[in-house]
Write a structure and sequence with these properties.
By secondary structure, this protein is mostly helical. About 65% of the residues lie in helices and about 0% in strands. It has eleven helices and two strands, in the order αααααααααααββ. A two-stranded antiparallel sheet has the order 1-2.
Length: about 260
Amino acid sequence: MAQRFAATLHEIYESETDRAHRFRYALLAFDLFTIVFVIATSFVVHTPLIERLDMVFGVLILMDFAARVYVTQNRARYFRSFATWADIAAMISFIAPLAGEGLGFLRILRTLRLLHTYQLMNRLRQDFTFFRRREEVIVAAINLLVFIFVTTGLIYALEHGHNPNIRNYADALYFTITTLTTTGFGDITLEGTTGRLLSIGVMFFGVTLFLRLAQVLFRPSKVRFECKDCGLLLHDADATHCKHCGATVHIETEGQY
């Protein structure tokens, strides 16, 4: 019985069977649902029902985390990963009410890690032509949303409760977007030394990264087109010849005009 259970864990987490891919899609859907839950509950008073749901989510995350630890070959390297500690922080935020719900924004990092796993990315390429043709743009859009959401969550976690301007995720998102786009209306500001330092961090690091991700989103640096001679998949957007073998490539981009 124990051997069968262990074999099932290795299959759904490490193999490329249909059942494993269905499980990863289900896990991705669960991650996205918990993100919506974290945002939605920031607008309402936390009732006992919400706290019980927090506990349920925390237990499910703990089970997923324990399974990952079990099937991992190199556990020392696994625990050196930033995504692993993001999982631990998310578990604490859901299971222990004393930790507060603010750390729940780290939940989105699990979705980012899941999307970047080889098995799921490969399956998305096989299942969806739209994803295969626009992979770089889609991944850039996901990275941009993750960055905005994590920055918003950090502001919400540090400011909610003592800054009257930050009452929910919408207020924190509004401040984040106006800061990242350098609009800066000034109607919402972060108070105190910590708030000012956080604002400086968002402006100094955030604006550069935000612009870089936005640039990739609207003008990808590479396009996916298979060279008929050597099979190279990624080319410059304006390429007329394959950099690997020199063959002429006919990419349907602005490079043709």
